[in-house]
Amino acid sequence: MSTTTFLTPVQEQIYLVEERMRAQANEEHHPDLRAALNHLISAGGKRVRPTVVLLVGNMLGAPPERLIALGAAIEMLHTATLVHDDLIDGALLRRGIPTLNSQWSPAATVLTGDFIFARAAKLAAETDSVAVMKHFAETLAIMVNGELAQMFDARGIYDRTHYYKRIYAKTGSLFELASHAAALLCDVGTDVRERMRQYGYNIGMAFQIVDDILDFVGDTATLGKPAGSDLLNGLVTLPALYYIEANPDDPNVRLLAKGEYHNTARMKELIESIRHSEAIRQSLDEAGQFTRRALEALADLPTGVERQALEDLAHYIIERHV
Amino acid sequence: MSTTTFLTPVQEQIYLVEERMRAQANEEHHPDLRAALNHLISAGGKRVRPTVVLLVGNMLGAPPERLIALGAAIEMLHTATLVHDDLIDGALLRRGIPTLNSQWSPAATVLTGDFIFARAAKLAAETDSVAVMKHFAETLAIMVNGELAQMFDARGIYDRTHYYKRIYAKTGSLFELASHAAALLCDVGTDVRERMRQYGYNIGMAFQIVDDILDFVGDTATLGKPAGSDLLNGLVTLPALYYIEANPDDPNVRLLAKGEYHNTARMKELIESIRHSEAIRQSLDEAGQFTRRALEALADLPTGVERQALEDLAHYIIERHV
Fold first, then answer.
1. Do B145 and A28 touch (CB under 8 A)?
2. Residue B274 vs residues A117, A181, B63, B226, B290: alpha-carbon distances, Å
3. Chain B residues whose beta carbon lies within 8 Å of the beta carbon of residue A146
């Protein structure tokens, strides 16, 4: 099941979230900034993060208006980090659409990202919850610190603990925030909030592992970038780690261990080896364990369309395009 | 009187603000990030913005702990905007100390600025005031939009309305926030809060006008950059506007009106003309009017050391180094 049925119960509210996002640049702001924001919002993906916000909040009875603000805040935060990340990576396309930095100066791109951060913070404040705001700011710091660590740390082979820390900063933390913050807007006990935090954390971790698997098994057309591009950039993700553990004497593994990931021909051989190895299934099993924990966190919660959609979403995350 | 007597009543609390700022990068964060933050905090200026926060808050009875958080939040926000501005301008020195971007890659500088924004937002949330958070986020958006407008707009001669809008975004808005947000933490009526907003707004506007005057009359050693550097970059500030109004037929004014600010030799002549013209006194008078309005906003507020210091601060702003 790789369908997006989980979207159905919140489709109307997703439009409201997008409307709220677009409203963040208005006649007070520079016309070019408004155009850039519209471009970025139109280029958006499936809105998985606001969907989590809305499903959890609706299931637990959050006030709709504050929930829309939260969904918009989290998607804006996500958008702002993508703007700065694409600038830093020099990426020209995202989801097949030209990035802001491919068309604008670095200076304008930095400031547009800053503006979107500012509007994300304003939207977070519009939840009227100090607790949400604190978690929101903390998550932003975790994400940025993760990006900095990835930039400063020498390329090389790290262990799985290091990998999990990195993908938590990159993806897990924002999914965790989406689910947890939605629960913070509801009149429910700390145990339910903790379960929702766990749900978000686990689907977020599964999401990134699957992304990292797709980087090996996907094709260029679907990925919008060459297969194995993580490894070609010296970034060792879970499938590579499993392969390395099982094949320490592969000459290409030895080369990678020496930091020679710039040897493209040899790294392409390694990518092929990983692609056809047990490491893919092992990584999928690992993602599956996170999904299982996410589903366990939903046990005892009220049954209904939202809970069903949250389950569907957890399944979708590990089954998409694989 | 160009002394900093206004600092005396809050000196101890300023240390607490700086400590709180330094604590924003801890063992969870990358060591290079901690080093960068310490460098930036050590290179800090007179802490005028947190001083406003502390004086206003102490005068009106704000809870000290939340006041320290607010002071740190505002100084962190100021620091983050400087990091990105210096990157965008390619500035190598600030206050005679190497900028982050002069030593780090653009990517690391962008992310360090982002991290400081994140910590500023977290500190703002620690005031436990949703109203403060909303104003905080709005001010950040105003500042970034102002930077973007300055970047996108064609260089040229604009009128004073445009100039005031620009310096409000650049400086006035953050002083306004410092003073207003401190009052929002106090158990006082909306009239007092409005007065404090006005106080902050007016000293902020005066502050920037005096900065713009100093750019003409200061010497390179004090400024840390060549005199007239605004005009050499095509930025027409208040002294230039007054001079242009009085001398429309000056050939160098005509050249500037044609957008030829890259003609350095002729612009240096124009800078000399402005420097020795009535425009300097007119601009100072203008700053003095803002100061007068700031002092008026303090009328009827409780007399005591804090009010005296706020008055001293208003005087200091227009009398420094002129």
1. yes
2. 40, 56, 48, 15, 22
3. none
Which two three-digit tokens encode residue B23? 């604590």
Task: Name chain B contacts of A32, Cβ cutoff 8 Å.
Answer: 148, 152
**Cβ of residue B193 closer than 8 Å to a chain A Cβ:** no
DSSP 8-state assignment for residue B94: E
| Contacts with A88 from chain B: Cβ below 8 Å | 107, 110-111
Instruction: Please indicate whether, in this complex, the C-beta atoms of B125 and A110 are within 8 angstroms of each other.
Output: no
Please list the pLDDT of chain A residue by residue as tens digits (322 residues): 457 889 899 999 999 999 999 999 888 888 888 988 998 998 878 899 999 999 999 999 999 999 999 999 999 999 999 999 888 888 887 877 888 888 888 888 999 999 999 999 999 999 999 999 999 999 999 999 998 888 887 777 889 999 999 999 999 999 999 999 999 999 999 999 999 999 999 999 999 999 999 999 988 777 667 788 899 989 999 999 999 999 999 999 999 999 999 999 999 999 999 999 999 999 999 999 999 999 999 998 989 999 999 999 999 999 886 5
A214 contact B CB<8A: no
Contact B111 A28 (CB under 8 A): no
What ipTM is given for this predicted complex? 0.88
Of B270, B233, B264, B241, nearest to B151 by C-alpha is: B233
Q: Which domain holds residue A186?
A: 5-319
Contacts of B111 in chain A (CB under 8 A): 84, 88, 144, 147-148, 151
Q: Residue A104 in contact with residue A36, Cβ under 8 Å?
A: yes
Domain count, chain B: 1
Please report, for the domain that includes residue A150, its CATH number: 1.10.600.10
Closest to B114 (Cβ–Cβ): which among A84, A105, A126? A84
- The answer to whether residues B236 and B256 touch, using CB atoms and an 8 Å cutoff, is yes
Task: From B268, B321, B316, select the one nearest B48 (Cα to Cα).
Answer: B316
Asked if B121 lies within 8 A of A140 by C-beta distance, the reply is yes
